[in-house]
Amino acid sequence: MLYELEEKKEISNNTSTQDVEDGGGWSTAGKKRSKKKKKIVSSSCRGCGKVESGTRSSSSGGEIAKKKFSICSKCGVSAYCSRDCQVLDWKRGHKKNCTQYAAIRTGKRIDHRLVLEKLIRKSHMYLNPFYIAKRKGKGPGFLYLNSKNTLEQLYLTVPVDMDGNPFVRSAICRFVTKNDFRSMVKQNFELAVIQKKLFDCNMNSKETVPIVIMLRCGVYVVLEITYFPSFVVCERMSGHHDKDEKLQFSLD
Ligand SMILES: [Zn+2]
Ligand SMILES: [Zn+2]
After folding, report:
1. How far is Cα 61 from Cα 226, in angstroms, rounded to an integer?
2. With a threshold of 0.90, does the pTM exceed it?
3. Do 172 and 204 have their domain in common?
């Protein structure tokens, strides 16, 4: 489904208090009220890259767009010089991220857990055999996964930012024993918050793998992921990881 194009509206000052929560609202790039939010509308066409003529930044008075581009009415993020360019961009991948752009633009709360579970599911084939190999050697423990990406970046269906630029999503995973974790807590008190939840996880299970994910924003999430396709298959694959101290992999 291709969303309607709506013409960008000129907004001459920043006195408006109306927010953009209700999807139908207009939005303009760089308005002062959006200080918590990301840049809202780019001023170049996402189809052909053409730059909107007469565009001026809000710092020079908030005057916007003499020659107006249209924006996708669903996400309110992507600007287009023509219908053809929208169709091109839609097919090229905008359709996969449009809903997520809309959610980010309107400041909708993103559920950490759901986003991470969905993403991690794609990596079970690497994570589970690695976990089994390390647990055999070191005893009960959990996976500690670190990503430099933001939650918003992980939330997008495909790794293309709101300006249309592709980026890389990756993670590093280590195996941490309970004792290692206790030492980590002494260095970093924030980790104490998750200790109870983490230690309640079964670290000898043949059903689930406990995993702590640390995001760039400093948020820690404890998850339990299931073995896929099964513990037995993962165990058979675990031999490859005997010597690996860490696992670095792409999240896409
Ligand atoms: Zn264009
Ligand atoms: Zn859109």
Report:
1. 54
2. no
3. yes
Instruction: Measure 72 CA to ligand 2 centroid, in angstroms.
Output: 5
Distance, CA 6 to ligand 1 centroid (Å)?
A: 15
Dist. CA 114 → ligand 1 center (Å): 35
- Which secondary structure element, helix H or strand E, spans residue 133, and what is its range? helix 124-138
* pLDDT, mean of residues 22-28: 32
Helix segments in 76-111, DSSP class H: 83-89, 95-105
Averaged pLDDT for residues 155-183:
94
Whether the predicted pLDDT of 19 surpasses 50: no
State in Å: Cα 99 to ligand 2 middle: 7
pLDDT at 224 over 60: yes
Residues 98 and 195 both lie in one domain: no
Write out the residue range of the structural domain in which residue 98 sits: 51-105
Residues 85 and 114 in one domain: no
Q: Report CA(60)–ligand 2 centroid distance (Å).
A: 28
| Cis amide prior to 166 (ω within 30 degrees) | no
Q: Which residues surround ligand 2, an ion (CB under 5 A)?
A: 72, 74-75, 98
